[in-house]
């Protein structure tokens, strides 16, 4: 059992792309249930709450969200989120996580194929910052989520229910687990 509450959330879990996007030359079975993965971008605060025992209610909810997103293979994030997570859980939590534990979490989360912040994401973030009066860091998160094709951004940092150019903001503590993934 992994630290995220599911069996083996490792890079190997994602090496079988048929689990993510089935490809087959055979004709589809009309009786088969069609399943679509709806990607959900997870902000740093959700990851941190899943590890922070200071608020057990939020910890349980964040951990349940993480378990659900692992189970349905819908979690998405950025390298920025991984960096913020590592610094927060090793330096800002009291008690904090050990560097080794935090690194193992980051390695597990790398299975979600985090998007790297590049020039186009920065340009998008500037436009979002100006248009929606977001902080630059929040605008980078929104731009990364949009780049990954996510319909929902799971965060406590922005207004619940806000829609930003087709991206719905959902507070994980106000949204039923699995309600859109």
What can you tell me about this protein's structure?
By secondary structure, the protein is an alpha/beta fold. The chain has one domain: Rossmann fold, CATH 3.40.50.1010. It contains seven helices and five strands, in the order αβααβααααβββ. The protein has helices at 11-15, 44-51, 56-71, 79-92, 99-109, 119-132, 136-147, and strands spanning 40-42, 75-76, 152-154, 163-164, 167-170. It has a five-stranded mixed β-sheet. A hairpin with a 2-residue loop joins strand 4 and strand 5 (167-170). Helix 2 crosses helix 3, helix 4 (79-92) packs antiparallel against helix 5 and helix 6 (119-132) crosses helix 7 (136-147). The chain is globular, with a radius of gyration of 17 Å. The two termini are 22 Å apart.
Q: Strand count, sense and closure of the main sheet?
A: 5 strands, mixed
**Strand content bin:** 5-15%
Radius of gyration, in angstroms, nearest whole number: 17 Å
Q: List the helices and strands in order.
A: HEHHEHHHHEEE
Taking the alpha carbons of the first and last residues, their distance comes to 22 Å
Tell me the helix content: 40-55%
Strand order of the largest sheet: 2-1-3-5-4
Poorly predicted runs: 10-34
- Cα shape: globular
Count of helices? 7
Write down the CATH topology.
Rossmann fold
What's the name of the CATH homologous superfamily? 5'-nuclease
The number of strands is 5
Which architecture per CATH? Answer: 3-Layer(aba) Sandwich
Backbone structural class: alpha/beta
């Amino acid at each position: 059992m992994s630290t995220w509450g599911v069996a083996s959330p490792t890079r190997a879990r994602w090496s079988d792309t048929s689990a993510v996007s089935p490809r087959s030359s055979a004709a589809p079975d009309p009786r088969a249930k069609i399943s679509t993965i709806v990607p959900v971008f997870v902000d740093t605060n959700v990851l941190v709450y899943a590890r922070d025992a200071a608020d057990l209610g939020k910890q349980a909810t964040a951990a349940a969200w993480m378990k659900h997103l692992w189970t349905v293979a819908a979690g998405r994030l950025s390298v920025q989120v991984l960096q913020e997570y590592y610094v927060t859980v090793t330096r800002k939590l009291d008690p904090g996580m050990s560097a080794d534990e935090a690194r193992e979490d980051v390695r597990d989360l790398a299975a979600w194929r985090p998007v790297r912040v590049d020039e186009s994401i920065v340009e998008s973030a500037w436009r979002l910052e100006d248009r929606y009066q977001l902080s630059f860091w929040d605008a980078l998160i929104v731009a990364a989520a949009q780049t990954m094709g996510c319909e929902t951004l799971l965060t406590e940092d922005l207004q619940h229910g806000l829609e930003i150019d087709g991206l719905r903001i959902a507070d994980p503590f106000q949204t039923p687990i699995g309600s859109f993934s």
